[in-house]
Specification:
Shape: elongated
Oligomer: single chain
Strand order of the largest sheet: 9-10-2-20-25-22-24-23
Distance between the termini: 36 Å
Strand content: 15-25%
Largest sheet: 8 strands, antiparallel
């Protein structure tokens, strides 16, 4: 097995070479990469917004506007079809999604139904392959007809409106000056907009919030506007107001002469006559003709430009406008004129887009996070390498080579697929460093066991790789399941963590069974050793014959009490939920000079009428973390609150990070987080049941629930904020805990095949003792990596790594004192299994002391 042919050797080192070449661009700047030959890779891993700075905005299209527009369009369609069929009606009206009407002649019911039948035709296909119908027509007594807009039809229109909005949004973002926005659809009614480098998204949010439906209308002079306000305007007219303060009222004819769809060119200029900022426009040929006719009839009167139901300009018609050229003048500032130009050039949105979530990172904070993460990664790697070399000598050197290649391979995959590397993603890489050596530890300890049993060295190495293979796969699949579910339910930085964790696990499996194997095979071929190197020190664990199961009742009792206390605290006190789950805003500021003044911040913000304000110092009191409660007015109120805070504090503080989560997003994140944990447990339960037996699966779930409950208890006791990254920590703890549990279970299952008469508690004790070196070493390397991340990783990631640190310790405990004793409680004893002819377990009397 350890014989590597020449072509296998070439393939292994070709993989190493390609990975190095693909990952290499990450070490150079864009200017340096520009000097590279064109045939070399130039792609780098894409830094997430939390590392390079920028804004991530989640926009929700207003469903009510789509419904209202479809309702009015359908009412017009119904009236037209019945009019064309010469069918008289009365009381034609609509509310919400239902239209009702009465036929003047009930005997025309069939004819009316036939005329309206096209309204029920299919407008698309659902995900299940069924037809989507926009409306359903039903007839009643006394000539009553009801037309109901279907939910499926509305959903189809909403989704189509989001698709239509993508190009408009992209044009607006680019015209603000940002050339590389990332815009993607989420669900049927959401858009995600990521703009790197954008530190104050207020102007962009204002632009994206406006449908920008511009029309040119004539005034209705049939009555004074005040009379229309006091009584009722004519049926074909409406009262609109200007943007002035106080606003001016106009009686406007509803039917427009032209709209923004007819504009073929626009420019923002400074009018030389009035010295005002104005926007000039040019209409297409069809609209030019209509505009000429309308202005010819209204010389001496103003016409109005209406933007989103507000009059923005009302120029006087001095003579017929026959060239289709016009001017919008409304006391615009230079920026206001530029924004109006952007709206006209990008086109109108089908409905209003409301900001439901915002996460903004100042580039300086991102740079600080990168620096801190690199330091933490270097310290963590050195700690893991030193630990492995101390315990395994030259074999530790082989593990170090595999670890280095593992990191290179992760960066190569991220670079090749242009995946996004986030701050939690870097944490995932550092966490993977601790797990990456786990496969090597399992292999080395299997080799040692075979050597102790008297197996020749080469055969012991072959057997070590073969026997460790199944255990390594089973142990890592559980963590992969957690990473996959985390990726599917997460977004942004959390998804970045799942990506690097998943890639890291796969990379560690690859390196363990290719590079490490090749290194050991080459070492054996050249040195022809007869025994392990003298630097291997894990024999110190061989004398450990600990009676773990002897105190299982005590550990069970203590764990049960702690779990009960944690649950009581969870339901009575509760966790300190972050804005991800409660809604609201989280703002990180840094004093422009000196240290922050927390009492002053609270006093100033308490005067803004934005509810409860919390503030605490961070970064040695040079910065502060401010939290605003969820506002009663919904998503728009959340944005208004942050705008007020910016206006109040921007004179003395820099805004480094802003997170705004509206009620719609917080509810969605809560459901997704709950589903993620439950789905992870269910998937892992099924996997272990299939691979082992139901007793193992039940034990693994009980141990995992124990870890989750105690982790929740940690949040309750410490008051650490429970946010979206906390869900990532919990799912990772689940994966790690099961990784450790599976190793113990795998050895227990193996020993059960050999020793059918041995009492189960003694057999389990022996199994745990046999894997104790692996348990201790893997936990130690993982904890060392997390410790480095916690100390050097920076304020943003510190609470996340602290929870992970606690979870790894608890997971190690539960794999021994919870998962293993459950097998005894459920009387695990498989039947009908033939004993293995080559048992590894020492005689029962010597297995435990």
């Amino acid at each position: 097995m350890l014989q590597f042919s020449r072509w296998k050797t070439i393939l292994v080192w070709l993989a190493v070479f390609i990975s190095v070449v693909v990952a290499l661009p990450n070490l150079f700047s864009e200017r340096q990469l520009a000097r590279f030959p064109s045939w070399l890779p130039h792609h780098k891993a894409v830094l997430g917004l939390d590392l390079q700075g920028g804004s991530r905005i989640s926009l929700k299209i207003e469903r009510d506007e789509i419904v209202a527009a479809r309702l009015q369009a359908t009412i017009n369609d119904v009236a037209r079809r019945l009019r064309d069929a010469k069918i008289a009606t009365s009381d034609l009206s609509g509310t919400v999604q239902t239209i009702t009407l009465h036929l003047a002649d009930a005997g025309q019911m069939q004819a009316a139904t036939d005329a309206l039948k096209p309204l029920t035709d299919s407008i698309g296909t659902s995900s299940t392959g069924g037809a989507i119908r926009e409306a359903a027509v039903t007839s009643g007594n006394d000539g009553l007809i009801t037309v109901a807009l279907t939910n499926d039809g509305i959903n189809f229109r909403v989704s189509a409106a989001v698709d239509q909005s993508i190009d408009v949004v992209e044009n607006r973002v680019k015209q603000v000056g940002r050339r590389e926005p990332l815009i993607e659809k989420q669900g049927i009614d959401r858009l995600i907009v990521e703009v790197p480098g954008l530190t104050d998204p207020q102007r962009l949010k204002t632009l994206l919030n406006q449908p920008a439906k511009l029309t040119f209308n004539m005034l209705d002079t049939s009555m004074p506007v005040q009379t229309a306000i006091d009584t009722q305007p004519p049926a074909n007219s409406e009262v609109l107001y200007s943007q002035d303060d106080p606003p001016e009222s106009y009686l406007v004819v509803k039917r427009p002469v032209a709209s923004d769809q007819s504009i073929v060119g626009a420019e923002a200029i400074l009018d030389p006559a009035t010295k005002q900022n104005v926007v000039t426009f040019q209409l297409d040929d069809k609209a030019t003709q209509a505009f000429a006719q309308a202005t010819a009839k209204n010389v001496g009167k103003p016409y109005v430009a209406v933007l989103d139901d507000q009059v923005i300009s009302a120029p006087l018609i001095k003579q017929p406008i026959t060239d289709g050229k016009g001017m919008l003048a409304g006391n615009f500032s230079p920026e206001g004129a530029a924004d109006l130009l952007i709206l006209l050039r990008s086109g109108s949105l089908p409905a209003t887009l409301t900001v439901v979530e915002e996460r903004t990172i100042e580039p300086g904070l991102g740079a600080d996070s990168v620096k801190a993460s690199v330091i933490a990664g270097i310290v963590g790697a050195l700690a893991v390498v030193g630990f492995m070399v101390f315990f395994y000598g030259s074999l530790g050197g082989f593990a170090t080579a595999a670890l280095v290649f593992n990191i290179i391979l992760i960066m190569a995959v991220l670079s090749f697929f242009q995946a996004t590397l986030t701050l939690p993603g870097i944490a995932g890489i550092i966490f993977t460093m601790g797990l990456a050596v786990d496969s090597n530890v399992l292999i080395y300890e299997r080799i040692r066991e075979k050597l102790k049993a008297g197996t020749p060295f080469v055969q012991a190495c072959e057997s070590g790789f073969a026997r460790a293979y199944t255990t390594i796969i089973d142990a890592n699949v559980t963590t992969l399941i957690a990473a996959a579910i985390l990726f599917s339910m997460g977004s942004g930085p959390v998804r970045g963590f799942a990506v690097t964790l998943g890639i890291g696990i796969i990379a560690s499996l690859f390196t363990a069974f290719t590079l490490t194997r090749w290194l050991i095979a080459t070492w054996i071929k050249r040195r022809r050793p007869k025994h392990l190197p003298k630097g291997v020190r894990t024999a110190m664990f061989d004398g450990a014959h600990i009676r773990f199961m002897g105190i299982r009742r005590y550990t069970f009792t203590v764990s049960a009490v702690l779990s009960l206390i944690a649950m009581v605290g969870f339901f009575s006190v509760g966790m300190h939920l972050g804005v991800d789950f409660t809604g609201g805003s989280l703002i990180e500021v840094r004093a422009k000079q000196g240290k922050v003044d927390i009492p002053d911040i609270k006093t100033r913000l308490s005067q803004l009428n934005i509810g409860d304000v919390q503030a605490r110092p961070i970064n040695n009191a040079t910065g502060a973390l401010i939290r605003l409660q969820s506002q009663d007015g919904g998503e728009n109120a959340e944005q208004s609150a942050v705008t007020l805070v910016r206006g109040e504090l921007q004179d003395a503080y820099e805004f480094r990070r802003v997170e705004v989560v509206g009620p719609a997003i917080s509810g969605q994140l809560t459901r997704a987080g709950t589903f993620g944990v439950l789905a992870s447990l269910a998937a892992i339960f099924i996997y272990i049941w299939v691979r082992f037996a139901w007793q193992y699966a039940l034990g693994a779930i009980i141990a995992t629930l124990h870890d989750i409950i105690l982790t929740f208890g940690l949040f309750v006791v410490t008051g650490i904020e429970f946010n979206l990254t906390s869900i990532a920590a919990v799912l990772t703890i689940i994966g790690y805990s099961l990784n450790d549990t599976v190793v113990v279970y795998d050895r227990t299952r193996e020993n059960l095949r050999h020793y059918k008469q041995m009492p189960l508690p003694i057999l389990i004790d022996a199994s745990i003792n046999q894997t104790l070196s692996r348990t201790v070493l893997t936990a130690a390397t993982t904890l060392l990596a997390l410790l480095a991340l916690s100390i050097f990783g920076g304020e943003v990631i510190r609470s996340f790594t602290f929870v992970m640190f606690f979870g790894v310790a608890v997971g190690t405990f539960s794999s021994i004192y919870i998962a293993a004793p459950v097998l005894i409680a459920f009387k695990l004893r498989p039947k009908g299994v033939s004993p293995d002819p080559a048992p590894d377990l020492p005689p029962a009397g010597k297995a435990v002391a």
